[in-house]
Amino acid sequence: MRAPLILIGLSALLSTTAVAQQAHNSNAPINFGADHIELQDKANRAVLSGNVSVKQGEMTLNSARMTVAYTGQVIGGNPQVSRLDASGGVTVKRPDQTARSQYAIYDLNRRVITMLGAVTLTQQGNTVNGGRLTMNLDTGRSVIDGSSVGGSGGATNGGGTVTQTGGRVTGTFSVPKRD
Hints:
Elements: H1 2-18, E1 30-33, E2 36-40, E3 45-56, E4 59-75, E5 78-94, E6 97-107, E7 112-123, E8 126-136, E9 142-145, E10 153-157, E11 160-165, E12 168-172
Antiparallel strand pairs: 1-3, 2-3, 3-4, 4-5, 5-6, 6-7, 7-8, 8-9, 8-10, 10-11, 11-12
């Protein structure tokens, strides 16, 4: 029963630092750039490849490849995007927060980004590593778990270290020195 308590502690650590972060504007337009784009209109998707960069509000998502799924509706001359699937050196940057992984899924309807495989989240001097990261863009809350996707990881915070093996999170946190 210790693992859930430690996960709650890590979640609280990330949530506490995320409180200062403003909610993401999920209604902002999505601008993109890539070396190559393939439109698959019958499948309602586009495949971007090579130095893919997507920007929405103050958030930037970079990857080697991305599949953009859209609903088929066009409003104001723009297709309505519902989901982004990114792979290959994925980086999500928001003010005061950077997350890296092998894969990411941005569900625009739920306003949630799920990152998988060798995940690293850095925020205000804290770094947490794991197998899966879920970022709620409305609340600013980020939760990392020890999924076995991508291997083991750990977290550091001012000298404290948390390690993860086999999907289990264990660790030691440092305490401020007292005189």
